[in-house]
Amino acid sequence: MNLQLGKTATVQEISEWKPGAIICATGSRPYTQGNRRSRDPRIIMSDDLFSSTKKVGDNVLVFDFGGDWPGMEAAIYLAEKGHGVTLISSRLHIGETVHQYLRNEYLKKLYNLNVTLLPHYDIGTIKEDHVTIRNLFNQQKEELTNWDSIVLSLNRIPNTELFEEMKGHAPIVKQIWDCFGPRTIEEATHEGIMSAISL
Q: How does residue 77 score in pLDDT terms, banded at 50, 70 and 90?
């Protein structure tokens, strides 16, 4: 087996190998198209939180649009570093799409870290030093002023570009995991095993 790491796959190079199968597991990315808020220098994507050189302020608003684990992980990570954190979600409850038993452990940690939890709210405008949030049920708006940085945990879309380019360059070309549709590590492990078995 020839394992190559830290290398970008190209159609030309892969075609020269004449592979019998190509499995694309290229992941997903945050959906930012048309989201001008993501260009504000005070805003950081949850994907970049752990590797970015951006300075995160003392008080942070974490907006979670998917009800998934990245928003909760971001809030926990920041709270453990001593930041004041408010986790805001547009879902019915915090961590709505996470399995119940795992969600319970996340919530326990969030409460123990004194993270403020605000479900049922969507983000509105960001102007100067205030953010407008809107209750999804009664449409009432509130303004938040006690913040220095904002972390966005957005919905995700598949990275399908490489998969589309690889079509026709091998008898079998598959897309798995988040490259097919953003999901969890459970689906990734299952699809990886099943894809290997099927070859």
A: very high
CA 136 to chain centroid, in Å, comes to 22
Counting other chains too, the contacts that 166-170 makes at CB distance below 8 Å and 24 or more residues apart are 166/11, 166/14, 166/22, 166/24, 169/11, 169/14, 169/15, 169/19, 169/22, 170/14, 170/19, 170/20, 170/21, 170/22
pLDDT digits (tens, 9 = 90+) for 159-189: 778 888 888 888 988 888 777 777 777 777 8
- Residue 150 phi/psi, 5° resolution? -130, 135
Domain boundaries, the chain: 41-156
What span, in angstroms and rounded, lies between the C-alpha atoms of 31 and 1? 36
Q: What is the largest CA-CA distance in the chain?
A: 60
Q: The domain 41-156 belongs to what CATH superfamily?
A: FAD/NAD(P)-binding domain (3.50.50.60)
Cα gap 194→197, rounded to integer Å? 5
Count of CB atoms situated within 10 Å of the CB of 42: 18
Q: Tell me which residue of 104, 134, 108, 129 sits closest to 119, measured CA to CA.
A: 134
